[in-house]
Amino acid sequence: MKHWMDKMRVWGLALGLTVTAVACGRRAAEPVPVSLHRYERALMALPPDSIAAALPALAAEYAPYLSGADLADPQNVLQLQTFVLDPWVKEIYAAVEDTYGDGSGLSDELGRLFAQAQALFPDLQMPQVYTYISGLDYPNRVVYADSVLSLALDLYLPDHAAQYRAAGFPNYIAQRLGPAALPVEVAQAIAVERLPSRAAESADGLTRMGTLLDEVVYQGKILCIVDRLLPAVDERQKLFYDEAQWRWCKDNEAALWHYWMKEQLLYETDLSRTKHYINDGPGNLAFQDAPPRLAQYIGWRIVSRYLQRVPADDPQLWTRPAQEVLRISAYKP
Which residues contact 208 (CB under 8 A, 6 or more apart)? Predict the structure, then answer.
């Protein structure tokens, strides 16, 4: 909790229908009520010249961003004053208000998502949902930990790809960001939290999962969970693929799998040989015209086949080792 809270404090102060669909068993559940804690609204509503007096009450209500900070420190007060007076922040805040308004639409969307999550994971505790303006903190746009979900709404605005590119985001990331990406990334965060912990990241930034097959199946489990949590969302959006990227995967699935088998990549542990199938990016260096993250697509296909062959209440549904998942799935593209 401490590491996550530290990240939030820093920004709080500084800124203030297919085979897959059937296989993953997508069904709609009754929405649950979701209340949003709108930190950006509360902060921007403060008169700049009286922020210091308002901080104790603000910190009590928005602890994920301000808990533990020295609110009597003049420098911290000055940072918040500078933030709420910044013309760029005011412009972004206006865009957030135009997009999300009173938050009722977002609450309804999250209510449907959480209802699906509770149907899939009956022991899931409903998180408290906080929203804020992150200052384009892309790595921390969705943080889900200790039953708190924090959402950086400035990274889910429509028609802001140019602004995101101007902030230094790669084009493939800037084009992905927008309101449609928010529920998908929330669902991904829930999936990661529910699956067994992964190994620590290596020096090159990749997570060491053992073999390529381990990574493929792990990513497939995430996508099948996302598919169940968002039954109405198009499959392409769950992978952040456009039509051409999706069609490449459909047309080349068998060829890709056979290539992995021929090159003995499935059980490869050397990330230098497998990273092109795992990494995000504008494309794929291993195959011409191929999309990135092919491990995700193949994993989704494998786990979907697996879920067609096991009972829905199987206690090992999400925890079986990759080799066992592949064997049970009888995957043969």
Answer: 199, 200, 201, 202, 271
Exposure class string for 278-310: b at 16+ Cβ within 10 A, else e: bbeeeebebbeebbbbbbbbbbbbbbbbbbeee
Question: 142 - beta bridge partners?
Answer: 151
**What does the block give as tokens for 300?**
């989704």
Structure tokens that stand for 177 in this block: 């960001």
CA distances, 289 to each of 113, 252, 264, 276, 283 (Å) = 33, 11, 23, 13, 7
Mean pLDDT of 157-175: 93
Enumerate the H helices of the chain as residue ranges.
Answer: 2-14, 19-23, 39-44, 51-61, 63-66, 74-85, 87-100, 104-120, 161-166, 171-174, 181-194, 212-229, 235-239, 243-262, 271-278, 294-307, 322-329
**Residue 199's pLDDT is what?**
56
Residue with tokens 């949590």: 229
Whether the Cβ atoms of residue 257 and residue 298 lie closer than 8 Å to each other: yes
Phi and psi at residue 284, to the nearest 5°: -130, 125
> Vertex 304, ends 269 and 31: CA angle to 5°?
120
pLDDT tens for residues 119-136? Answer: 999 999 999 999 999 999
- Residues with Cβ within 8 Å of residue 187, at least 6 apart in sequence: 113, 117, 225, 226, 229, 230
Count Cα atoms within 13 angstroms, Cβ side, for 175: 9
pLDDT, residue 109, reads 97
Q: Is the pLDDT of residue 261 over 60?
A: yes
Q: What is the C-alpha to C-alpha distance for residues 165 and 188, in angstroms, rounded to an integer?
A: 24
In whole angstroms, what is the distance from residue 68 CA to residue 198 CA?
A: 29
- Residue 212: how many CB atoms within 10 A of its CB? 25
Residue-wise pLDDT for 221-231, tens only, equals 999 999 999 99
pTM: 0.89
Backbone angles phi, psi at 112, to 5 degrees: -70, -40
